[in-house]
Structure formats: structure tokens, C-alpha cells
Design a protein that fits this description.
about 40% helix; 6-stranded antiparallel β-sheet; alpha/beta; about 20% strand; 15 strands; 6-stranded mixed β-sheet; globular
Length: about 400
């Protein structure tokens, strides 16, 4: 799958843009804060109908504007064309259309246009709370299985009801059981989905990490859930007095997590910045493979600030992996350094485009082979980038 073009109106710092993209690699060059990442966010927003990171959706509207609109034209793997339009109004909220027909439920859009984003904020997948890792599991599995998203919605509504009852001091066991039975049924299926997902992506994750690191170290994932040892009704019975005192449900799949390991140790405690970034990139590439296998659609890959905190050898391995394999399709890459992007483009066999970004405006510029600073016939020099401290 690829996105052929995008029209943007008042999205973050982008007042207006109409862009045509390469089906291969698209590079965005510009200083920090110019709008490179905002274009990637607009593509993600169109594909997923949600921001990359949790935030009020009204915050996506450009300052001083009343609404935003993003429209894109996609070509699917089978060759058919699709059009998606997504808008947000400060007064009326969000609207989402596919081929000019409005969705009855926005959740029906999830998984139709798969996308994987790799960004600096992904370090939170290692350093952040379990909520960040649960969100990744839920977003990815939901793209591959619409029934999983329905289970999540069902569980979370029942969880909210149980917490309201706890806060209100209700003690009627029958009332609790009516809610807890719903939670238990959904939780069992959610637990199985998450367990199977971690088991499925773990070999791909380990392979990517090993390749990017040059076999310098081994990393692993492990699913952590209280439901691995007990059923939810058993957990409720054990914690009933405690939950009543706390006023909320203290255990369940809403507390699940993923253990991130570097060898025998915690990646969170001992991983360097480069190792953490290698970990998150390997994890997202494994997610990419999962979505492609399960959905039968090649996702779009967004690489935001890929060169930061990685040595040149690891960067070269990542670029070679995603550009040299038939598993990957359309790719977007951002950076502040023209030389990095020139070297990347020269190494590619696929078609490419290079855009300069300035204050939310985009201009296509010459590819690396046409750079005036490089003489005709001169081979590219290695990317000169200092090692991270």
C-alpha cells in the first residue's frame, strides 16, 4: 500500500499543502520545528484517524484556525485506488470519509490503511510506564483483528462501571457479578490475544535487534499478565476488600505489561540511548511484519529522526534492511542534515523524492545525485556523524 498524494489544511503548523509522493522513499529535510514530523503525523492521522501520541484532537488544529482537513489518495497492494478524508472542527468534532462515504463507526477504519511510525518518543516504550506498552499492543492487535478492539471497548466500559460502584461504596455482590462476568469473558480473550501477539513477534524482534546491533547484544520481550496464573474471578475474590478500600479495580488486563530485556538485565535500567533506540526500532519493524502478514497489506513506514542517537553503522544497517527487502514498501524519512539524506537516497534502488520543509511549507528539491556540491562521477562519502555520548 502507498499514499500517492495528500492535501492538508490547517494541520498543526501546516497552513496548506498539496503534495505528490514517491511510491518508494520520501525524504523530508529541515530544521527542528519546521513541520517535518507534522507531515508524518498528518499521514498517520489520515490512516488511523488518531494522532500518533495521545493528545486532545483539537490540538491538531493550527493555532487561530477553526478546523483542519486532511485528504489522501491511496493505492492498495492489489492496485485499487482509495480516498480518505478526515477533518476536525472545534465545534462539531471529527468526521471521517472513505471514498466520499462517511463511516458509521470510526473504529471501522482501523486496519484498512496500516501504518507504522518510528519516532524519538518511542523511547517511552522502554522507559515509560506499562500503559505505553499496553497501548502499543492494543493499537497493533486492533489493526489486525477488529474483534479485539470490540473486546477492549467492552472490557473498559465494564471496568469503568465497576470502578464507579467501588467509589460509590456499593456492596451488593450480585451487582458486581453482573459487571465482573462481562469483564472476565473479555479479559480472557484479550489476554490470549496479547500473549499470542508477543509470542508471534518475538522471533522477528530478536532477529531485527541482532542485525541492527551487529550481534553485539541480545534483546528479548516477555508478556507480563496476572491472568497467566489466575482467572479474573479468582483475582476479584482475592482483591475485593482491597479494591473497596482503594475505590478502583487494582488488578486485571488493564495492568498488563511487556518486560524489555537486554541479555539477562532490564533494558530500562541498563540500556544506553543507542541500545534503547535500537530496541524500539527492532520492535516497530517486528510490528510492521506482523501487520503485513496478518492483514495482507504492506503498511506505510514512517521514520522520524532515524539518525539521532545511533552510530553510522547501525543507521546503515537499518536503511539497508528497509530499502533492500521486498517486504517493505513506501517509506518516509525525516532529518535535519542534508548529507544524511543524500547518502540514504544514493544507497536506494527504489524511486525517491526529497522535500525541503520551512515553516510548514514544502518544496521538492534535487535528489542527491544532482547536488551541486558533489561532482559528477564522484562516489558518496560515508555519513559523517559523531558517535552518541
Amino acid at each position: 500500500m502507498r499514499i500517492d498524494s495528500i492535501d492538508i489544511l490547517d494541520f498543526k503548523n501546516i497552513p496548506e499543502a498539496k503534495l505528490e509522493f514517491s511510491p518508494g522513499v520520501n525524504c523530508l529535510l529541515g530544521r527542528n520545528g519546521m513541520g517535518k514530523s507534522n507531515l508524518l503525523e498528518a499521514i498517520h492521522f489520515l490512516s488511523m484517524a488518531r494522532p500518533i501520541r495521545p493528545m486532545p484532537e483539537s490540538a491538531l488544529i493550527r493555532h487561530g484556525a477553526d478546523l483542519l482537513m486532511v485528504k489522501g489518495r491511496y493505492t492498495m497492494d492489489a492496485g485499487e485506488s482509495e480516498t480518505v478524508t478526515c477533518g476536525i472542527s472545534r465545534e462539531k468534532g471529527k468526521s471521517l470519509r472513505r471514498n466520499d462515504k462517511e463511516y458509521q463507526r470510526i473504529s471501522d477504519h482501523i486496519g484498512r490503511f496500516p501504518i507504522v511510525s518510528i519516532a524519538p518518543a518511542d523511547s517511552e516504550l522502554v522507559n515509560g510506564s506499562g500503559e505505553v506498552r499496553r497501548r502499543l499492543m492494543d493499537v497493533v492487535i486492533s489493526q489486525a483483528d477488529s474483534s479485539y478492539l470490540a473486546l477492549l471497548i467492552r472490557y473498559n466500559k465494564a471496568l469503568e462501571s465497576r470502578n464507579k460502584m467501588l467509589r460509590a461504596g456499593i456492596r451488593d455482590r450480585l451487582l458486581y457479578e453482573s459487571v465482573e462476568n462481562t469483564m472476565a469473558e473479555a479479559a480472557a480473550a484479550i489476554h490470549a490475544g496479547r500473549r499470542d501477539w508477543v509470542n508471534e513477534i518475538s522471533p522477528d524482534f530478536a532477529r531485527y535487534y541482532s542485525h541492527i546491533s551487529g550481534d553485539a547484544e541480545k534483546a528479548s520481550l516477555k508478556y507480563k499478565s496476572i491472568l497467566s496464573d489466575k482467572t479474573l474471578p479468582e483475582i476479584f475474590d482475592e482483591n475485593r476488600a482491597r479494591d473497596a478500600a482503594l475505590g478502583f479495580t487494582s488488578a486485571g488486563v488493564h495492568r498488563d505489561d511487556i518486560s524489555t530485556r537486554l541479555g539477562d538485565y532490564s533494558m530500562r535500567r541498563l540500556g544506553s540511548q543507542g541500545q534503547v533506540k535500537t530496541f524500539t526500532i527492532a520492535l516497530k519493524l517486528a510490528v510492521f511484519d506482523f501487520l503485513r502478514r496478518r492483514g495482507g497489506i504492506t503498511p506505510i513506514l514512517l521514520l522520524d529522526d532515524i539518525f539521532d542517537k545511533l552510530d553510522t553503522t547501525r543507521v546503515a544497517r537499518i536503511i539497508a534492511e528497509v530499502s533492500g527487502s521486498d517486504n517493505f514498501g513506501q517509506i518516509f524519512i525525516t532529518d535535519t542534515n542534508r548529507e544524511h539524506l543524500d547518502e540514504t537516497l544514493q544507497s536506494l534502488r527504489s524511486s525517491s523524492r526529497l522535500f525541503e520543509v520551512t515553516e510548514g511549507h514544502f518544496k521538492e528539491i534535487a535528489e542527491c545525485g544532482l547536488c551541486p556540491e558533489r561532482r559528477e562521477g564522484e562516489s558518496p562519502s560515508p555519513i559523517k556523524k559523531p558517535e552518541p555520548s
